[in-house]
Structure formats: structure tokens, C-alpha cells
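Mods, move this if it's the wrong board.
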Amino acid sequence: MEFLILWIICGVITGIVASSKGRSGFGWFLLGCLLGIFGVIFIALMPSLRPQPVQQVHLMQHAVTGNNGSVRVKICPDCAEEVMADARICKHCRHQFL
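Not the wrong board. C-alpha cells:
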């Protein structure tokens, strides 16, 4: 009886961990009930399917400032990256501005 409870607890833990990693919680619950502690270990070692948040890094160190002190930039139509307003060529994708 104790082993049955232990296997169900392992299934619940496996389902919770799988759900937090963007995987099917119910499917992994069933697999965790079948595999026991090995299911918990297996899902703990698997990578997450959720997209990682993108960290926005501002790369302009020597920015050209306008009269009010703001940075003058424009958005490249090809790669959608910020480039200096006076740039003739995008430093990311080499798009030539007219």
C-alpha cells in the first residue's frame, strides 16, 4: 500500500514539473506513475519547452544626441534593429538607407 502511494506521489511531482516546463502535465503524470522516481529524474533532466525571455540590451555606447538630449535612432526596415539616425548602412544586416 505504501508503494502505491509513493508511485502516485511520484506521478504528481512528475506532472507538476512537466507542466512548469511547458509539457503535458497529465501525460507526464501517467508516465510518472508508471516509472516512479525514475520519471521524476527523467523530467527533471529534460529541457523546458517554454521560450526564454529575451533580455533587451542597449548597445549604443556613444550615442548622437539631439537638442533635447534624447538619442536619435531609426529602425531598420529589413531587420527591425535600432541604428543611429545618421547611419547610411545598417550595422546588423547591411541594409542601405536612401
